Amino acid sequence: MQANTPTRPNIIFIVADDLGHADLGCYGGRPAEFGAVSPNLDRLAAQGLRFTEGYANSPVCSPTRFALMSMCYQYRLRGAMEEPLNSAARGKPHLGLPPHWPTLPSRLREAGYATALVGKWHLGYPPDFGPQRSGYDEFYGIMAGAADYFTHASSRGDHDFFEGEVEHHEIGYLTDLLSHRATDYVHRRAAAAREGQPFFLSLHYTAPHWPWETRDDEAVARALPNLLHLEGGNVQTYLRMIHHMDEGIGQVMAALDAEGLSEDTLVVFTSDNGGERFSDNWPLVGGKMDLTEGGIRVPWIARWPRVIPAGHTTDQHCLTMDWSATMLAAGGGTPAPSHPIDGVSLLPMLHDPAQRVPRDMFWRMNHRQQRALRAGRWKYLKVEEHEYLFDIDADARERANLASREPERLAQMRERWLAWNATMPPVPDDASVTLAYTAANMPAR
To answer: What's the pLDDT at 444?
Structure first.
């Protein structure tokens, strides 16, 4: 079956949860005891473009998701000041993605796209917030930041699986259920896509976020004291969870092939932040909650056979919100005049991977009063009272602090960060930081 060549691509935005920079085979990840961990994602990278220095907007999940949706620095939205949103946000009308705020799905829908979110929302609870209040025609997934893979209960113990805003009860392993629904969506939208109405599918997995449960671990779920699962898990379980996700992505890609839509579909894969307990971030230091490279540098893979030449890698710098801006541009949408965006479209370098789009990137975290600026090869970092300057091209592991050797560069980058920060709303005193675990639970990484 051959599709007519559309003027705009279908778009599938796949987001893993807490995936480490080096967890995938195509990023140097080691095979598991059962074999290759990510053959479908490795194939996707070989067929498209792999980014070696791509970043998340935040080292923790919900702030990155605010940036993904709004195409802005997340600090512009009060809900994103929570690190991350937790169950205490329920019923608080200021802690979520405001329905009036223009989003990637709402702007694509206005441009004629069908839109769906399959998977994790984590941007506030109904009745004040929700996917279908922010631009999605369909929603199938969880509202909170995590859910058990079998019972589909949130950290509060309540059922957290929805179709629209109606509780949905379905037996099955959550990763598989999300994969099956995404595959079904491609088949359901295929005819309209071939006739010229493209679709935008957000496939936001909870894998490989805790609890540490593979497809064969239903007994673990039934005995689980709480979702944090601090007493459980291991590297092989974690890798199997990634493999289950990878299998589902393979099913979605097969559906595109079967419907003749592969050539004209932009597929983008990433993680919402760096890895957590069992992830592999080598050679990077740190992980989730850290503005060191291990907390914010994540896999980025893009495949669009009609446009992106296969088999390339790039060191183009980018943030999550840049990809949202890129998808909006690819779909022929425009930002709302009332809400200018901070994301930068990478569309030119998708057509020609040799191009570079200039990109300085800023971060801040309430947790440990962290701040960071990446500008070219240089990175300014502050953690609590300590300042650092790293040449990331030479020292991605951030071990050689050049602050004393280059005081002028340090001062200049500090001032640039302060000037940028002055353009952002301040962190309110009541913004919360929620840590899943501390050094009391496991040694520092």
So the answer is: 79
